[in-house]
Amino acid sequence: MSDSGESGSHVRQLRQEAEGLKQEAEGATDPGERQRLQDKARKLLAQSEQESAMAAGDIYPQE
To answer: Does the pLDDT of residue 57 top 80, yes or no?
Structure first.
């Protein structure tokens, strides 16, 4: 498999994990746990976006 294929697979995996965390956060009864899960989901989405941009040849870091 090519590097771009592996990268695309990893990006999809990150996005799926983030979506799962969002759903878990929606069901969390503890506000602290909900916030922790939402923060982790946001970080994973940001990471997936950065990896996707890098795979597409846009290597400038996102701020």
So the answer is: no
